[in-house]
Write the structure tokens for this entry.
Amino acid sequence: MPVIVRNADQSLSPMAPGCDAAALLTPDVIGSDHIFLERVILEEGAAYEIELDTKMVGWVQALSGEGILADVEISPKTVTYLPLGFAGKLAAVGGETVLLVARVPDAGRFDPEIGDMPGELRQVDWTREPVLESEHDARKRIYMATKALAGTHAFKGEMISYPPGTAAPEHHHIGAEHFQYVISGRGTALLDGTGHVLEAGDLLYNYEHEPHAFINQSDDDFVFVEFFVPGPCETIWSQGASVCAWLPTGVDSAGRKPSREIGYHVHGQDDGL
């Protein structure tokens, strides 16, 4: 069964002076060790220690505020990929900073070539990535982590936006588990036909073979990030559903020429992106 972690139920624990964290995804919560995920809140000037073991990779996404990690600037425009065995201190600057910090243990089981992942921090400004639009509905998509961006197949991520009234076809995945973390708005997750309302700060975790779909019945955009572990997986569409394909819009999130080009492709057939 899918797991829903409500924002209202997330309890914070002190990690260091001025630093609190809520454990969102752990084996105790999901019964799986595919991924560990924390929401970290830092007061200005506070720091959070990130220490990965030699088989672990991960990423950091700022939800709000700004920080510095190993001389790399962290902001809500960026996703920062953590290489094998990374250790460093993330310090908040300019006010409170809220982060999602993800760790993928024993990443070699998901990517046999994990040793080829760059050994230094890599980062993408997702606001410069191409905006893609759904072929059959009003959804928009921006890739946040792919092999080309992060240097590994151990995980894959994207941001999805559902304008008001938008729905997507039911489907399930084979070969990966994945989560959606709601960035803004309010939408309904249809999980094996049953509706569950999700709001900003809520998290949904889906295992393999679990049918799911989303619909936005509100007056505002429903936006979430979703990450798969591992990245490659097969997507199976429910009977009667249109296969989801993505088309380039030619612009980034601010209407500029994007940092790269991504052509038409079907969801799940995104190797090389």
